[in-house]
Design a protein that fits this description.
198 residues; mainly beta; Porin; eight-stranded antiparallel β-barrel; three-stranded antiparallel β-sheet; 2 helices; 11% helix
Amino acid sequence: MKRSLVLLVFSVILVTSPVAAETSFSILGSYWDTDGLEELTGGGVRGSFGGPVWGIDFTGMIYGEESFSVTSGDDTAFFEIETHLLELGVRRYVGPNRPGLRTYLGGGLSMIRLDPNFRPEIDTEIGVYGLLGFEVGRGRMAFVAEVFYRDVSLTMDLNDLPDFVWINLGFNLDRQARFDLDMTGVGVNVGLIFRPRR
């Protein structure tokens, strides 16, 4: 009972505080130059909650398929990998802000999940990100552009690859092999922000 009361009080404070004074929804296109998969392009959505100084961002992205290869001895296996991304972070608007132009810094946690063909096991990993962004526009819609840096690495385990991959494609890789995939890199997001009428 005491725990429920604390959660209720915290929720009321959060909803009625200046941090929750403004909400917005964004549609984003993204370019990400990773170390492991090189250049990725994709898109996603973001929900934001905040006030004139601080904000909280929830972002979801999907990046299109990109080739990745692993080598053991004289053998090389190629995979097509789709990247799924969830991020939770905070932003702080920094001055000087002019009418129709706002600048912000942000950062938080990135949860990366890779979806490869042939289904080798790749653990979902959590990394960090930081960004610098600009909002241009007034009223209910604005243009947004961001430069970001993400730092996260994953591991691919080939032990769970189906037998037909090894037999039909002739790979003789060590089935216990694990390969690191470094997804660290910089990128750019661009898109539109929509704010409900207040």
